[in-house]
Specification:
Oligomer: single chain
Strand content: over 45%
Mean pLDDT: 79
CATH class: Mainly Beta
Low-confidence stretches: 1-27
Largest sheet: 8 strands, antiparallel, barrel
Distance between the termini: 45 Å
Radius of gyration: 24 Å
Number of strands: 10
Helix content: 10-25%
CATH topology: Porin
Order of helices and strands: HEEEEEEEEEE
CATH architecture: Beta Barrel
Length: about 200
């Protein structure tokens, strides 16, 4: 009988501990809603699209992000860096092709927390690698410019959130040299990016 009682007490203690642990990782942190402060990192998967002259560009991206947030009541500010492998290119065929192969950015962000949802804007600097091919050959170039956009995070728990972002990588025109002296080709390397991701917060 004593063993049964001890087993019941032990089970109750374990249940209470599990409930307390679950509560400590709750989404809601009180009247201010979710808490997105601290370090965050996670994977990203998305789709890039745009136009290079008369040609449309499209393709997938995948990679990850890392950042740090400060939250005071409903207001949030932070900084974030990301790196994405890209396969954004023009359609096959014809004498010209263009592709973006890698994208990365360093951005600040500011937003407001509505319960468990964070809505924010972001602005910063971006870099990328591109390549262009025409009848004069294939050429590569590194581009840089401004990155800006909007995003939203939804807190599943205090430590895990899902996100969606729409970003504009505004690189502008880039010139590619050729094997011929004083001959170059200029194309626009800017693109739009719609991506989904997840973050771990601690």
């Amino acid at each position: 009988m004593r063993a049964v009682v001890l087993a019941i007490v032990a089970a109750a203690c374990l249940g209470a501990s599990a409930a307390a642990a679950q509560e400590s990782y709750r989404t809601s942190t009180g009247p201010n809603g979710a808490d997105f402060s601290g370090v965050e990192f996670g994977p990203d998967l998305g789709f890039g699209f745009g136009a290079t002259g008369p040609y449309y560009t499209a393709g997938g991206v995948f990679g990850g992000h890392v950042g740090y947030n400060l939250q005071a009541s409903h207001w949030l500010g932070g900084v974030e860096a990301d790196a994405l492998a890209a396969n954004i290119r023009t359609g096959q065929g014809g004498p010209f092709s263009f592709s973006e192969n890698f994208l990365t950015s360093l951005r600040g962000k500011a937003g407001y927390v509505f319960g468990d949802l964070l809505a924010y804007g972001t602005l910063g600097f971006g870099w990328g690698t591109t390549s262009s091919t025409n009848w004069l050959g294939s050429h590569g170039a590194t581009v840089d410019g401004v990155v800006f956009g909007l995003g939203a995070d939804y807190a599943l728990t205090r430590n895990v959130s899902l996100r969606a972002e729409l970003l504009r990588y505004q690189f502008g025109d880039v010139s590619y040299g050729t094997v011929f002296p004083y001959v170059s080709q200029s194309v626009n390397a800017s693109t739009n990016l719609l991506r989904l991701g997840a973050s771990v917060h601690f």
